[in-house]
């Protein structure tokens, strides 16, 4: 699971008011190289919740991202930042670990890169 | 005789390792699913600006439809309830991220983040009550509600479905509308039982020019190949139990059927060889209401 997906996921458990963002518990992180696409990055940038993204990247072991989200115009000029953004968003994979609901503490295990988001009967 | 998979077992049990492997190694199924995915992407009507979007693949299974999305240059997140099917997707090393989840429990995505959603042959599974705690209506409500929320404004969802009957189709459509979607059904090749495919094209937001629903294929007579000679072509994922074909109905407007229509019908009967009274000035004359 990449941080792109993690940034979109929220806890769906009944009664939870704010299930975003899910905390990440890391057991294994894998890096996979992917071709960079400027158009995609510029398109997705406004949708990213930067704080959640920044925290998640730290947990995954990547410290290069700035804490404050830069202005969108920076994307067009700063290639170095674009590369870091791309790397954290699309090239870091959580292979084994868990996602934790921030309100209930319920763990969604991640195996082989697939988070198990199935809710139990009483959580629906 | 194979019946609908939806009637045999819940999806996470029906699509076990054997079935998952069968499904993916069948070149016929792969071809059909690829065609369906391409058509769904076409109906998604994403802007043709070369910018990759983030799409959702609901019921992504072994990643057949996901591969089509990747080939079209977009990023995707796939959701499926079957562990076995997702394992096959992993083996194929699909580009999208996979989630093990139940769409009837809600999609669990942040509002307004998805640029488009497709679903190939999956949503009709929601209509079955697979567990005693399931209530299909609640599941449909949770699914469509969460789908509507996570889509960006102006985004579309295209769901290719195999409804068992008219009632199921209406049920699915009604819950989509209740969630706030506008849109309708596009039917490709409506007159062919084999090739007939239905797509729910749903749009977020009020109807406008950009949300106009396109025509289904085969209606204007072009390339509607009713291939009778294709031999043993049993589509194992569909067996529409009530084989009702849409009938061409005479449009009856408020003025009634008219003299012209009556004369035409009488001519038809004469051609058939029936005995028909001759046409006079009294034919199809308006009678008094108490006649």
UniProtKB/TrEMBL annotation, chain A:
Subunit (UniProt): Interacts with TRM9.
Species the sequence originates in: Herrania umbratica
Signal peptide region: none
InterPro entries from the UniProt entry: Trm112, Trm112-like
One matching Pfam family: Trm112p
The organism's place on the tree of life at top rank: Eukaryota
Family the entry assigns: Belongs to the TRM112 family.
Gene from which the chain derives: LOC110417040
One record GO biological process: rRNA (guanine-N7)-methylation
GO molecular function ontology, one term from the record: protein heterodimerization activity
Protein name, entry field: Multifunctional methyltransferase subunit TRM112-like protein At1g22270
TrEMBL record, chain B:
Biased composition (Acidic residues): 221-232
Protein's cellular compartments: Cytoplasm; Nucleus
Domain Methyltransferase type: 56-157
Matches recorded under InterPro entries: Bud23-like (IPR039769), Bud23_C (IPR022238), Methyltransf_11 (IPR013216), SAM-dependent_MTases_sf (IPR029063)
All copies of domain 18S rRNA (guanine(1575)-N(7))-methyltransferase Bud23 C-terminal, residue ranges: 202-289
GO cellular component term, pick one: nucleolus
Entry's Gene Ontology BP terms: rRNA (guanine-N7)-methylation
Keyword Methyltransferase: yes
Protein's UniProt name: Probable 18S rRNA (Guanine-N(7))-methyltransferase isoform X1
Source species: Herrania umbratica
């Amino acid at each position: 699971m990449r941080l792109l997906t993690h940034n979109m996921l929220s806890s769906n458990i009944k009664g939870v008011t704010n299930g975003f963002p899910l905390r990440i518990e890391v057991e294994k992180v894998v890096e996979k190289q992917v071709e960079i696409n400027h158009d995609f990055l510029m398109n997705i940038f406004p949708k990213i919740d930067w704080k959640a993204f920044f925290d998640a990247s730290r947990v995954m072991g990547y410290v290069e991202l700035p804490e404050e989200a830069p202005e969108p115009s920076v994307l067009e000029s700063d290639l170095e930042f674009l590369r870091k953004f791309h790397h954290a968003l699309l090239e870091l994979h959580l292979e084994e670990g868990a996602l934790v609901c921030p309100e209930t503490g319920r763990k969604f295990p991640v195996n082989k890169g697939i988070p198990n988001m199935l809710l139990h009967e009483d959580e629906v | 005789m194979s019946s609908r998979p939806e009637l045999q077992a819940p999806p996470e049990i029906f699509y076990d390792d054997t079935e998952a492997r069968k499904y993916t190694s069948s070149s016929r199924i792969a071809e059909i699913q690829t065609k369906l995915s391409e058509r769904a992407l076409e109906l998604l009507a994403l802007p043709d600006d070369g910018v990759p979007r983030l799409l959702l693949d609901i019921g992504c299974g072994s990643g057949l439809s996901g591969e089509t999305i990747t080939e079209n240059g977009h990023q995707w997140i796939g959701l499926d309830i079957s562990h076995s099917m997702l394992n096959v997707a992993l083996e194929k090393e699909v580009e999208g991220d996979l989630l093990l989840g139940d769409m009837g429990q809600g999609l669990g995505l942040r509002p307004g983040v998805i640029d488009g959603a497709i679903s190939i042959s999956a949503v009709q599974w929601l209509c079955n009550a697979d567990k005693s705690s399931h209530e299909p209506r609640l599941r449909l409500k949770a699914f469509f509600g969460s789908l509507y929320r996570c889509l960006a404004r102006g985004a579309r969802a295209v769901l290719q479905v195999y409804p068992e009957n008219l009632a199921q189709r209406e049920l699915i459509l009604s819950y989509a509308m209740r969630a706030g979607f506008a849109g309708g059904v596009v039917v490709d090749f409506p007159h062919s039982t084999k090739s007939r495919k239905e797509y729910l094209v749903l749009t977020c937001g009020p109807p406008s020019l950009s949300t106009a629903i396109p025509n289904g294929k085969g209606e204007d007579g072009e390339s509607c190949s009713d291939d009778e000679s294709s031999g043993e072509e049993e589509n194992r994922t569909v067996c529409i139990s009530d084989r009702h074909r849409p009938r061409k109905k005479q449009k009856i407007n408020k003025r009634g059927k008219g003299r012209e229509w009556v004369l035409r019908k009488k001519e038809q009967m004469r051609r058939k060889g029936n005995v028909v009274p001759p046409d006079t000035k009294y034919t199809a004359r308006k009678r008094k209401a108490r006649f």
